[in-house]
Amino acid sequence: MADTIKLDIISDVVCPWCIIGYKRLLAAISELGIQDKVEIEWQPFELNPDIPAEGEEVSVHIARKYGMTPDESSRTLAHMTNLGAELGFKFDYFDGMKMVNTRDVHILLDYAKEFGKQTELQLRLFEAFFSERKDVSDRQILTQELQRVGLTVAEALARLDDIDTRNRVQAQEAYWHSLGVSSVPTMVFNRASSLTGAQPVDVYKQVLAELVEQ
């Protein structure tokens, strides 16, 4: 459709602000009644591409990456949990929770796109990581989530070991970096304008309403 708004959401499934931003975006789309006018495609961004295979405890990660004290970290996680609850999303931060590498996740999301199940898998993995205490870098966990959304597990997992696929997904990520995307979520509207960060619902409504009028 010529009047469809193409919306690229650059995100990572271990990014709490990404699911908050998406939930707010959905609220804006719903309030405007334009569900049939928005086409969403998720784009890869590795929040922690250099994280070790065994992951890194969230408390250690936050201290190292953002320079927060334990008290500051606890307040931040509590604030995030409250924001999620307001939007109907459960953040279940727990002692020993780890940030993990998500390269395999992005390859599987690329695969899911071919079958119209990208958003379904993306949301499933947000919940798996933040709500269900699952390690989304673990291929056994990924197998379970692929099954839950009805994708062919063997075919999907084969992509993880395909060099061409891995290179292509990394090239997609590099493309967005080359355009200046350095934090997520970043939402790109019709490849012409963008918003970075989890914006308030009214901000998304204003941008979408202007695009619909155009």
Can you walk through the features of this model?
This protein has 214 residues and is an alpha+beta fold. It has a single domain (5-213), classed as Glutaredoxin. The protein has helices spanning 16-32, 58-66, 70-86, 103-113, 118-130, 139-148, 153-160, 163-178, 201-213, and strands spanning 5-11, 38-44, 56-57, 98-99, 186-189, 193-196. Strands 2-1-5-6 form a four-stranded mixed β-sheet, with helices on both faces. A two-stranded antiparallel ribbon has the order 3-4. The radius of gyration is 17 Å and the shape is globular. The mean pLDDT is 96.
Please give the oligomerization state of what you see: single chain
The H-level CATH homologous superfamily, spelled out, is: Glutaredoxin
Number of helices: 9
Structural class: alpha+beta
| Uncertain residue segments | none
Task: List SSEs in N-to-C order.
Answer: EHEEHHEHHHHHEEH
Biggest sheet details: 4 strands, mixed
CATH topology: Glutaredoxin
Q: What is the global morphology?
A: globular
The fraction of residues in strands falls at: 5-15%
State the share of residues found in helices, binned by percent.
40-55%
Q: Give the tally of β-strands.
A: 6
For the record, the CATH architecture stands as 3-Layer(aba) Sandwich
- For the record, the count of structural domains works out to 1
Order of the strands making up the biggest sheet? 2-1-5-6
Mean pLDDT: 96
Q: End-to-end span in angstroms?
A: 14 Å
- In angstroms, what is the radius of gyration? 17 Å
So what's the CATH class? Alpha Beta
